[in-house]
Each structure stands twice: as C-alpha cells, then as structure tokens.
C-alpha cells in the first residue's frame, strides 16, 4: 500500500491497557468510524505471535475502509500478519533491515526526535517520519525532551517526507500541529480508553479545531 499524506491526519496508536474495557479491536472499529485515518498496533508486552494474531483481527476490521494498519517495532509481525507496514524507533534496528524485510510495497515509518536524526533520513528508504515528542506523555515513559510546537515546525522543515506529530497530543492541538507543517498527529489516550472512541475521534478537526492546508 502506497502511503497517502492524508492517511497521517489522525493516526491512532493503540494501548492494550487503556483499551481494556472495550478491547483493542472494538476501540479501533469505533475510532475509525469517528474519523481515524491510520492505526498503529503497539503492544510492548506481547509476543510476536500475539501481535500477529491481533494484527490479523485488526486487518479484518479495517478491510474496505482504506485505513492502513502499521505494527510498532515488530517488523516480523507486520510481515507475518500481512499488515500495511511497520513503524520503528531509533533503537529498534536499522531501517535498511526493516525495509528489506517489508519489501518495497509496505509502509515504513521512523521516529525522529532531532533535526540531526531527521537529516540522516535523506538516504533512507522510509515513507514517513514520526516527529516529537511535542509534549510530555505518560504513554511512553522513556521519551526524549519535548520539542514544543516551535520545535515540531523545525523538524518538519528539515524533511520533504510526510510527517506526523507524536507526544501528548489531543483534539485541542490539531490545528496547531497542521499549522506547524505536519501532515497529522498521533494520539493514544485521547481516543484509547475514552468512553466513546468514535466521539473522541470525531472531536478532532471539527470546525472549532480545523485549519486550512
């Protein structure tokens, strides 16, 4: 699946603890109905086989929606589940290896926290960059120093690749993230664990939050 920039607009990263009441699959189903445009399966505690099983269930939910499914950190699981791609961080192995495993047609995302790391992607075969954290977040305890919105804009300006903002973001930040030049924003707790994931997703980019691009 080729990556469309607009797919990054509202990018949901799952959290099995926050999704416990409804479950990850049902949370994703409802969130996509509310406007989520991309989904990343993230479960740090699961085994590769458990990720494969959950990814396959999510692929069934997403079938026909046009919403890509990305697997966090586990390229082997992404390939085994026939997911649309994988997302890796700076410490999750070489992007070259990930691309070799994924092949040319799947999506590969890479997290970058500094302009130096963004610049280093110029010779890498990656499809988009996750930039941040913009703000501090409780869903990733070992994150780097937050960039703020000005820092996000500097990171975006350092690349021609599609970009998605990461870290401590919610519906209030949608317009500001787009104004900084990113193609969209990643969210976790702003949708996962909310009583109504569909309504939570729909609260992004309403007239109140929207900006023109």
From TrEMBL:
Keyword presence, Magnesium: yes
A biological process term (GO) from this entry: thiamine diphosphate biosynthetic process
Positions with a binding annotation for 2-[(2R,5Z)-2-carboxy-4-methylthiazol-5(2H)-ylidene]ethyl phosphate: 137-139, 168, 188-189
CDD domains assigned to the protein according to its UniProt record, in alphabetical order: TMP_TenI
Residues given in the record as 4-amino-2-methyl-5-(diphosphooxymethyl)pyrimidine binding sites: 40-44, 72, 111, 140
Family membership: Belongs to the thiamine-phosphate synthase family.
Protein name as it appears in the record: Thiamine-phosphate synthase
Gene: thiE
């Amino acid at each position: 699946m080729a990556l469309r920039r607009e797919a990054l607009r509202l990018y949901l990263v799952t959290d099995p603890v926050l999704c416990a009441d409804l479950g990850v699959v049902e949370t994703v189903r409802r969130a996509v109905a509310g406007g989520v445009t991309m989904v990343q399966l993230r479960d740090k505690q699961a085994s590769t086989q458990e990720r494969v099983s959950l990814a396959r269930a999510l692929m069934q939910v997403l079938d026909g929606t046009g919403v890509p499914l990305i697997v966090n950190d586990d390229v082997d699981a992404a390939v085994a589940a026939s997911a649309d791609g994988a997302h890796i961080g700076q410490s999750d192995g070489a992007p070259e290896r990930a691309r070799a495993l994924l092949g040319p047609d799947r999506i590969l995302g890479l997290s970058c926290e500094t302009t130096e790391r963004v610049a280093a992607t110029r010779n890498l075969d990656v499809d988009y960059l996750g930039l941040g954290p913009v703000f501090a977040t409780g869903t990733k305890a070992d994150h780097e120093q937050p960039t703020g919105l000005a820092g996000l804009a500097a990171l975006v300006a350092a690349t021609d690749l599609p970009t998605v903002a990461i870290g401590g973001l919610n519906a209030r930040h949608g317009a500001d993230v787009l104004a900084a030049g990113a193609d969209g924003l990643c969210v976790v707790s702003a949708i996962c664990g909310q009583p109504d994931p569909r309504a939570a997703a729909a609260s992004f980019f309403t007239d109140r939050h929207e900006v023109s691009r």
